[in-house]
Predict the structure.
Amino acid sequence: MTVPLEKVGEEMILNMGPQHPATHGVLRLVLQLEGEVVKRIVPMIGYLHRGIEKLCEERTYIQNLVLTDRLDYTAAMSNNLSYALAVERLCGIEVPERAQVIRVIMAELSRIAAHLLWIGTYALDIGAITPFFYCFREREKVLDMFEMISGQRITPSYICIGGVRKDITPEFLEALKSFTDTFETYILDYEALLTKNPIWLSRTRDVAVLSREEAINWGTTGPVLRASGVQFDFRKATPYCGYENYEFEIPYGTNGDCYDRYRVRMEELRQSNRIIKQAMANLPDGPILADVPYVVMPDKSDVLTDIEALIKHFKIASGAFQIPKGEVYSSIENPKGELGFYIVSDGSSRPYRMRIKSSCFVNLSTLPVMVEGRHMVADVVAAVGSIDIVLGEVDR
Amino acid sequence: MVVTINGRQFEVEQGQTILDVARANDIYIPTLCYLEKVSPIGSCGLCVVEVEGQSEPVQACSTYVEDGMVIITDSPSLFETRRKVLERILERHPLDCPVCDKAGECRLQDLVYEFGLEGRIADHRVGIPRLQEPPVTYSTPGIKYYPSRCVLCQRCVHVCMEHVGRGVLVVNEEGDKARIEPLYADNCISCGECLAVCPVGALTENVSPLKARPWQKKVVRTVCPYCGVGCVLELNVARNKVVKVTVDDTIPPNHGTLCVKGRFGFEFINSEERLKKPLLRKNGEFQEVSWEEALDFVADKLSSIKSEAGSDAIAGLASAKCTNEDNYVFQKFMRAVIGTNNVDHCARL
């Protein structure tokens, strides 16, 4: 293992991770300590590198969908959405309205699931065990709903090129309704546990501050950027999936510290809930898959009974389709920030090059700015947690 | 002569069909039964085009061009006509692509995908068509025939009659029961030409248990090892084993035709019984030995026979399956080193 830092005098070099529970996966932080003060910090990444970008060049556009689930695996639905939007833009596919609304519901549900996971584990990291159980109670409900429609909890691959895999069921809508109706009160529960908790305040207030300028210069996105006072959200800036039709606010902070990041995410839970309610109220009828038989997979029940569907399924699954030549960049507001796909197509059924823009990677790179020279070792845990990284997306 | 196709004018010659002209100028007309090496079959009706002055669409493959013809190859009504043709074929086509040998390189699949047929068109009141009938006996054991997959394009019938000249196959019965039958099975020479031209999986090869999908195969062009004609073959290789032999229509000397040996005689390549190491008979039994030992033994014996009984006491028998270069070196060895003209090879036996 290489150590990028050198010990000077009484200083100490400390490896935090890659098996440290507070690094949320396999991140290794190399710390140069003077006493307890962190002089320098170097995030060493790559322990979860699976070569997804390269793998994508060898597999068809249809097969690549399941790889996107494995980026930020706390919000797989959003990853599916970003990838599907990129390929759809490349092919010029218009997604039916009902599918768009379902996509919005799924994206916001996965935002809620991801933020709940963050709040629970972040509180756990800095010493509060109770919120973890409350957050996971609700996260479980979201995952159950995912399972209800896609059969999968973590890696649904539900949002696919051309729309969504299956239509949502009345049972799902019922579960969703009871969830959204009660979720606001649960948010109050979490806030009662944390927002005015003096220990919480002393662990997060004025810790790991990222100024507005620094946040912009380092190219951060998502809650990290918004906590530093920039009111920027891809859902408002470049609306996709009809987000321009929903009423919601972009929460933002003022200090750019861990506490503000917490507040921003808490508020985003409310806004997401608000969006889902609007989507449910205006759920149109109609098809859930675009009528593009060249790249959009037919429904599985048709495949088993209908020769045309079977042939199309065979052709598409075996990679006989062609995607128009060209390149495209498309990004969405993931729970963690901007998730973008840059795809170059050479006209075949496999991408010539696929580049994934990861917000986790960019946001993680601000860790030295937040911590170096200002904080002690214990605050590194608070800082890393507050960025909300998922190594699946950092390393790709 | 000048004809107009889709608004563009082309200089044409007497005796060309509309399809010939279109193909020569990169104008796409979908076809299913059309086969270049036989006379137009005209059984599928997919290649229909509109000709000005004609009330009904005509078949491009069998209509000869005339001076001043105005032709349209694509229009909504033509699309509808072609679609109906495909629908008629698909009505009774079994849902067995996943187990069909041809899937992936099937002309019918290509056409359905190309036309983007949407929704259910087949009449399923009689149930979903499945591959139920047991394979019908065919004129040669090298081929299996599945009547339910057959699209009755009659490519096989025509190629057997016109190209191979045996006339084994006929279309028997009518309607739903219509199928290809080897009525004159005694005439069959098992050349497999009918198998090669089948656009779907109705005629499937019944020799090798090894199969592979087209995207798993690597195609290697080589020369047939059997006789002196030297037909060009394309070996389809998957997982380092030959799974099928195909031929390119354009290459001499065989121009896409093969005999039973070239088409079906490839299994020896992967045979377990092939010798991989030299064997030497010791105490009445063959034993595997090293090349060095084997060569030393042969050299010893050959030189002792030559010195005792003269060069002509030795004869050499080479194999037609060896390459030209190998056989050349062998006869050179026999003549120059051993000193005899007793050289022959198996194809004369």
Remarks:
- Chain A has a mean pLDDT of 87.
- Chain A is about 50% helix and 15% strand.
- The radius of gyration of chain A is 22 Å.
- Residues 97-125 of chain A form the longest helix (29 residues).
